[in-house]
Amino acid sequence: MKKILPFLLLAFATLFVYSCDNRDNNNTVDSDTFPKMTDVTGTFTSANNYGFTQNINIQSTDVVLVYRRDVNSNNAWQLIPKTYFLSAGRELDYNALFSSQQVEVYIDPSFDLSTMTSTEANQFLNNQTFRIVLVPAAQAKGTNAVDYNDYTAVIKYYNLDDSKVASKKFN
């Protein structure tokens, strides 16, 4: 019995030493969400309550980014929510709400749309294009965080091809 006891202790200790692992296993990839983009274009009117809804399907832990194409800034993409300061101290706000099933893009209802000039309506209401970008919430370990305000950084970080984006009209 005295000869078996050291072997049992050695086997028992080996089991614990082998099962302990100091390596971090946080290099996992979020395989249930993959980055994708959709362009949605339309005109904000009273008929659509100055907003639209786009169906999506993501995990509740993932990220929805909504960008507005600003044609006056060389077709730059600007992350919303976004406030535009108009003449006479008026502020026009684009906002977005999302869940795991849909994205809603709308103009803040506190803005008095009756004060818009035709030039402002053409710039901010008519034929507006929004790019909805779905990305995983988890970022790869060892990488720097991406600045979601910088559209170019987002497409580069997630290796997205913005030349092949599906487009939809919402009205």
From the structure above, extract its key features.
alpha+beta, 3 helices, about 20% helix, DUF1735 domain-containing protein, signal
Architecture overview:
The strands form two sheets. The protein has a five-stranded mixed beta sheet, with no helix packed on it. Strands 2-7-6-5 form a four-stranded antiparallel beta sheet, with no helix packed on it. It is of the alpha+beta class and 171 residues long. The protein has helices spanning 4-19, 118-124, 151-157, and strands at 36-42, 51-55, 63-70, 76-79, 82-85, 91-98, 102-107, 128-135, 166-169. 18% of the residues lie in helices and 32% in strands. The protein is elongated, with a radius of gyration of 25 Å. It has one domain (30-169). Residues 1-19 form the signal peptide. Keywords: Signal. This is DUF1735 domain-containing protein.
Largest sheet: 5 strands, mixed
Radius of gyration: 25 Å
- The topology string of helices and strands comes to HEEEEEEEHEHE
Strand line-up across the major sheet: 4-3-8-1-9
Total domains? 1
Give the rounded overall mean pLDDT. Answer: 82
Strand runs, count: 9
- Termini gap: 85 Å
Number of helical elements: 3
SS-based class: alpha+beta
Judging from the principal axes of the Cα atoms, what is the shape? elongated
Query: Uncertain regions: pLDDT < 50 for 5+ in a row?
Result: 23-31
Query: Roughly what fraction of the amino acids lie in strands?
Result: 25-35%
The percentage helix is: 10-25%
Protein name: DUF1735 domain-containing protein
Signal peptide: 1-19
Keywords: Signal
